[in-house]
Amino acid sequence: VAEADIISTVEFNYSGDLLATGDKGGRVVIFQREQENKSRPHSRGEYNVYSTFQSHEPEFDYLKSLEIEEKINKIRWLPQQNAAHFLLSTNDKTIKLWKISERDKRAEGYNLKDEDGRLRDPFRITALRVPILKPMDLMVEASPRRIFANAHTYHINSISVNSDHETYLSADDLRINLWHLEITDRSFNIVDIKPANMEELTEVITAAEFHPHHCNVFVYSSSKGTIRLCDMRSSALCDRHSKFFEEPEDPSSRSFFSEIISSISDVKFSHSGRYMMTRDYLSVKVWDLNMENRPVETYQVHEYLRSKLCSLYENDCIFDKFECCWNGSDSAIMTGSYNNFFRMFDRNTRRDITLEASRESSKPRAILKPRKVCTGGKRKKDEISVDSLDFNKKILHTAWHPMENIIAVAATNNLYIFQDKIN
Amino acid sequence: MSAESPEPASADEQKEMEDKVISPEKAEEAKLKARYPHLGQKPGGSDFLRKRLQKGQKYFDSGDYNMAKAKMKNKQLPTAAPDKTEVTGDHIPTPQDLPQRKPSLVASKLAG
């Protein structure tokens, strides 16, 4: 597998018509959903390539002897305000605002230049004409409109567009900055957890997100399994949280692995804004913003890995950062696992399902078969044993269409798009 | 001669044995400590965090490099170690050790 092709982020836009992926090679590929077409009914809902561009390039910071990867860590769409589409894409150090626009007309009949672009001698022009617009083959162009650089000493792990549609935040391991979309040479630092003495460092910021409706509220998660909710109205520097979410731990069950597996790899608000979801190594937790002392729901993603932590530590898999996502109505959540498995939980019925994203297990338009991991004892037919799981096939990034039951699943260098059976 | 019976386990050891039975996590921890006895003696958190914060760090000193090149005229220098994750002032860097500029970028295969 070419490393550059490994998908590092997947994100639907607000309407769900566009799906963006970013990869380790710094490229962005945008897919667009096909319009309903009576003559080809089964192509409804298919996503085809719409645009692709090189977002970030590899860099070397000579002053700090630091290699800056071009890998796209996150893509976040802006709400659409005109015919063009805008998205933010970021690598470890630099955030860029990209404009994706369509061109399906071109002007012909210029006065000062020929059809092939050569300039005409102005003294030879004896008559003026009005250029006319002629249709042309659709061209989709991506251009960088803003480059937000030099604001992060550490590696950017999150970006989040605010509900005011004017500002956004970017978070690295120790700091969170607030930007205005129009201003690239300044940003405000709103969280700084860097200790005066780095020897005292005990936790880092792992993810951050703005509240979907309250433009003054954001949350950030930590490597110690805690979430802090901050209100920007209370002070300019939000080092003191407004709410602190942590599940109490049973001290007798503490082990060397406890802190590592409690590290939160992703935090996402529900669409309603009432709940938030966190992903740690073995579980997904749903928190009610009104209750700080424990989550309201906990879902086990792959509890059978608890007895494999030693080898997962040795092969570094224990540090894998899985993401999670809500469906449009907040009734279901989804997250990835190993062996190209991904899990979906229905919050109402409490049913869960394990599915596989791989070419071998599914043909186009075939219904996915539920998978099951055998945790011990006799393995039933069609079950897979824990020791047979392929830990190199990890599904870290998934996305759910904002309104429909269409999901995008990134399996290493392949993108799978699944949807509800069409009747 | 009578065989000596083993010493009765102390309360701590007994609890540890119980833990292993009850908690798979503790059993895994015991496995890890057996393989890496020095692990966890410093606060575990700081080690991981420092490694995380240092991602991407590469070292190259042009002074060392040029001095070494000059010295190479006189004697043969030992070849670079196969493990080139960290190149510091002690180890004379060679052109192979320097971070390579990635080759020209091609289009993503997802773009078809």
TrEMBL record, chain A:
InterPro entries given for it? PP2A_PR55, PP2A_PR55_CS, WD40/YVTN_repeat-like_dom_sf, WD40_repeat_dom_sf, WD40_rpt
GO terms under cellular component = protein phosphatase type 2A complex
Record-level Gene Ontology MF annotations: protein phosphatase regulator activity
- Record flagged with keyword Repeat: yes
Q: Which UniProt keywords apply?
A: Repeat, WD repeat
Look up keyword Hydrolase and say if it applies: no
User: Family per UniProt?
Assistant: Belongs to the phosphatase 2A regulatory subunit B family.
Protein name as catalogued: Serine/threonine-protein phosphatase 2A 55 kDa regulatory subunit B
| Gene source species | Strix occidentalis caurina (northern spotted owl)
| Classification lineage | Eukaryota, Metazoa, Chordata, Craniata, Vertebrata
UniProtKB/TrEMBL annotation, chain B:
- A GO molecular-function descriptor: protein phosphatase inhibitor activity
- Write out the transmembrane intervals: none
Q: Name one Pfam family in it.
A: Endosulfine
Regions of compositional bias (Basic and acidic residues) in chain numbering: 12-32
An example Gene Ontology cellular component term from the record?
cytoplasm
Which residues does the annotated region (Disordered) include? Answer: 1-48, 73-112
Top-level taxon of origin: Eukaryota
Q: What is its main location?
A: cytoplasm
Q: Name one GO biological process term.
A: cell division
- Which InterPro entries does the protein's record reference? Endosulphine
Record localization: Cytoplasm
Q: Is Phosphoprotein given among the entry's keywords? A: yes
Keyword annotations from UniProtKB, A to Z: Cell cycle, Cell division, Cytoplasm, Mitosis, Phosphoprotein, Protein phosphatase inhibitor
Q: Which family does it belong to?
A: Belongs to the endosulfine family.
Function text: Protein phosphatase inhibitor that specifically inhibits protein phosphatase 2A (PP2A) during mitosis.
Output the PANTHER family linked to this UniProt entry: CAMP-REGULATED PHOSPHOPROTEIN 19 (PTHR10358:SF4), ENDOSULFINE (PTHR10358)
Its recorded name reads cAMP regulated phosphoprotein 19
